[in-house]
Amino acid sequence: MNIKVPFNDLNRQYMNIKEEIDFAISSVISKSAFIRGEYVEKFENEFAKLMGADHCISCANGTDSLYIAMKALGIKNGDEVIVPANSWISTSETVTQAGGRVVFCDIDDKSYTIDINDLNKKITANTVGIIPVHLFGHPAEMDEIMKISKDNKLWVLEDCAQAHLAEYNGRKVGTFGDAASFSFYPGKNLGAMGDAGAILTSNSELAKKMAMFARHGGLKKGEHNIEGINSRLDGIQAAILSVKLCYIEEWTKKRQNLASIFLEEITGNNLISNPIVANDVSHAWHLYVIETEKRDSLIDYLTSKGIQTVINYPLALPFLQAYKYLSHSHEDFKKAYSKQSRILSIPIFPEMSKEEQDYLIQSINNFT
User: Fold this and answer.
1) 220 has a pLDDT exceeding 90
2) Of 126, 219, 237, 321, which alpha carbon lies 20 to 30 A from 143's?
3) What is the pLDDT of residue 227?
């Protein structure tokens, strides 16, 4: 069977909406609306409305959105921010860049999100905030996290980079905390054709601070109330995102339907474990992550079958060279450590054909 299954296929997505994308790009060019302007404002308003937030502050990328939010939240040198051990490094490096001290927390062994019990143990007199990550598209336990934050007077910055339209108890993630970070990196569920990011909040004063900091410290050209940075979403990316925003709900349903098929039909000869989804969540399925003790063999086998896979992430954050200075051992984060050698992301994207789905399932189930 001569079938190849890519991990994702952004060109396939583009070809399905090519006329709309091309028209959006040409519209921006015809008006020279490259920086800020009507297309950026349009997307900001549309995204905030879809998500149920009062304000959307767009920026250059998802990493910047975390940094900007923390600066606006008033982080100071030495302030501790608790971050889950399993995430992309943006979640932790921005804490340090903003002047804080990152404190890692172990993960839940089912959802891969922040472990509530360990979270409680990591809070000290220096803790100022928590960054829960809705990893792979599965929401963190936001009710418990918000209770902990309230009891300890901590801010909450949700990292929603992989969780567009995911829901916890019927409410969209990104609307629980003080602010929420989003990435529109091309491969995300809602992706631009370049770098792009945004922050959501319903706090008007915080929104003003974030917008000001992202635009050289002022909301009008030539007006600089504070020292800020230059982090702007450009008009072409905003216009592209507005087009894709019309499809994100449909694409999310397709991901969810595909995941339900995988959950039911992937057995893997009892060598493979499927993801576990909590009853009170709606998973966005940015990634479909399986577990196996024979990961390297499975990767080689699937590669030979023309099926692409990715490891997200080969090392938990505390074990990266960048955090060697914290002197963590494997015993400090037992769950994150045990998962890092077992997890493997397999293809899941809305444009996946029935033939590709069946071939992927059959191939995994034939693995020995």
Assistant:
1) no
2) 126
3) 94
Sequence-distant (6+) residues with CB within 8 A of 145 are: 114, 116, 119, 130, 132, 156, 176
Nearest to 187 by CA among 327, 88, 49, 72: 88
Query: Residue 1 pLDDT more than 70?
Result: no
Peptide linkage before 313 cis (omega within 30 of 0): yes
Angle between helix 38-51 and 235-245 (nearest 10): 40
Percent of the chain scoring above 90 in pLDDT: 97
- What's the token pair of residue 322? 């960048």
Beta bridge partners of 80: 101, 127
Within 13 Å and on the Cβ side, how many CA atoms surround 341?
8
CATH code that applies to domain 248-365: 3.90.1150.10
Does the pLDDT value for residue 80 go beyond 70? yes
The residue type of 293 is E
Stretch(es) of the chain classified as CATH 3.40.640.10 = 10-245
Amino acid 10 reads: L
CATH 3.90.1150.10 range(s) for the chain read 248-365
CATH of 10-245 given 3.40.640.10, 3.20.20.140, 3.30.70.60, 1.10.10.10: 3.40.640.10
CA-wise closest residue to 283 among 246, 304, 311, 258 = 258
Give the rounded percent of residues in the chain with a pLDDT score beyond 70.
100
pTM above 0.85, yes or no: yes
Mean model confidence pLDDT for the chain: 97
Integer CA distances (angstroms), 174 to 110, 133, 135, 159, in order: 21, 10, 13, 8
Given a cut of 90, is residue 269 above it in pLDDT?
no
Amino acid identity for residue 55 in this structure: H
pLDDT, tens digit, for every residue of 15-24? 999 999 999 9
